[in-house]
Structures are given as structure tokens and as C-alpha cells.
Amino acid sequence: LFDDYAERKDVTLVRCDIVNRGIADDEGYNLCKRLLDDYGNEDDFRTVHLFNKKPDAFDVDEFVKDKERRWKASSSGGVDTGDGVIEAEAENKSDNAV
After folding, report:
1. In 3D, which of 21, 24, 34 has the Cα closest to residue 76?
2. Exposed, middle or buried: residue 78 (CB in 10 Å: 0-12, 13-18, 19+)?
3. Burial 42-64, CB ≥16 within 10 A → b, else e
4. How far apart are the first and last CA of the chain?
5. Which long-range contacts (CB under 8 A, 24 or more apart) does 2-5 make?
6. Which residue in 13, 9, 10, 4 sits closest to 89, CA to CA?
7. Has residue 82 got a pLDDT over 60?
């Protein structure tokens, strides 16, 4: 997370590197996008908050089922720059509750 411009420009940059050769670039992109979506969507952020603040109440099995259902239902992609880097836009989330 690079928050150098967070205050002045209301932008935070994120870098995701795929270091596991068992995951394809598009899968890594989707994983990163879903992670950012969880922080940017108020309903999904409640799950993040629950996981961080009340882990005993977090139902990991239900979380995995929900994510699998959503991943199968969606079809989004990033832009492959040709050098293994996938670029994407993300919304800024200024809530620092985690």
C-alpha cells in the first residue's frame, strides 16, 4: 500500500505481485480486485471488519462459499501490459477502521 498521495490527492496506490507460480496472472488480478472490492464496498467491508475485530464470530466456510459464488458469477478482467503486470483502477477507501 502506497499512501503518499492519500491526503493531497485522495488516491492510494496498491501493488500486487504474484509470487506463486501456481496461480495465473488473471487469477491474481481477480484476487487483488476482490480484496480491494471488499474494502471499497460498505457491505463487504463489514465482513473485513468482523474478521479483524471479532474473528471468533467470522464464519470462514460461509465466507468462502459466498466468494466462490461471486467469482463464478462475475466476469471482469484487467489490462495485461505484456510484462506480467496487470493494471487496474480501484476506488479510494478512506475508512481506516481496520
Report:
1. 34
2. middle
3. eebbebbeebeeeeeeeeeeeee
4. 14
5. none
6. 13
7. no
How buried is 3 (Cβ within 10 angstroms: 0-12 exposed, 13-18 middle, 19+ buried)?
exposed
Q: Hunting for cell 492510494 — which residue is that?
A: 12
State pLDDT tens for residues 16-57.
Answer: 888 878 888 888 888 888 888 888 888 888 988 999 999 999
Q: Specify the residue for cell string 466462490.
A: 68
Task: Tell whether pTM > 0.90.
Answer: no
Residue in the structure block whose three cell numbers are 488473471: 26
